[in-house]
Amino acid sequence: EIDRLVAEGPTELELRRAKAQYERQWLHELARVDSRADALGEYATLQDDPGLINTRLAEIEAVDQAAAADAMRRWLRTDQRATLIYRQEQQ
Question: Are 43 and 52 in contact (CB under 8 A)?
Fold first, then answer.
């Protein structure tokens, strides 16, 4: 599946689902006061602009299929992977 995403990029439906899932997670996180404070602090400290908390969803919504495919080709390359193999312990 990862190889397909790297080769072809996400379908429109996959991208819409990923955006919807991110939006649900982000809004759920911001519903908690401590999580909202953490996000504001992170934006204030790392970006020098706590107001960026209000633009995050627009940034995600602006990602199109081409940009997502480009990111997948960049970050999901086979030469940058690690595979874990879990084996049952011998007794």
Answer: yes
**pLDDT tens across the length of the chain (91 residues):** 888 989 999 999 999 999 999 999 999 999 999 999 999 999 999 999 999 999 999 999 999 999 999 999 999 888 888 889 999 998 7
3-state secondary structure of 18: helix
How far apart, in whole angstroms, are the C-alpha atoms of residue 35 and residue 61? Answer: 22
Q: Give the count of domains, the chain.
A: 1
Residue 91 lies in a domain: no
pTM above 0.85, yes or no: no
Q: What CATH number is associated with residue 56?
A: 3.30.830.10
